[in-house]
Amino acid sequence: MFLKKKTFRNKTIWELNNYNSYRPFSWSAGVIKLIIILFCIFLVFYVGKFLIKWAQIVGGYIGKWTVKIMSSAVGDEMIRDDFWNINVIIAWFGWEGHGGGYLADSIMVASFNPRLWAVTMMSVPRDLYVFNDQEKIIGRINAVFSHSVGRKLQLDTWAKALSDKLEQIMGIKTPYYALVDFWWFKDVIDTLGWITIDVPEVIHDTTYPAVENWWYMTVHFDTGINVMDWEKALEYARSRHSSSDFSRSLRQQLIIQAIINKLMSNGLGNVNKLKQLYTNYTKMVTTNISLKEMIGMVKYVDNLKHIFSFWYTTECSEMNYKYSFPACFLYNPPRELFDGASAIVPIWGTTPTDVSFYDYTKNFAFYVAHNQEYLIENQKIQVLNAIDKKYAKATIKRSDAFANQLAVKLKKYAFNILSVQNFSHSLSGTTVYVLGSWEYKQTIKTLKNFVNIDQVITIPDPILVQQYSWADLLLVLGNGYIDQLISKSFSYYR
Question: What is the reported pTM?
Answer without folding.
Answer: 0.77
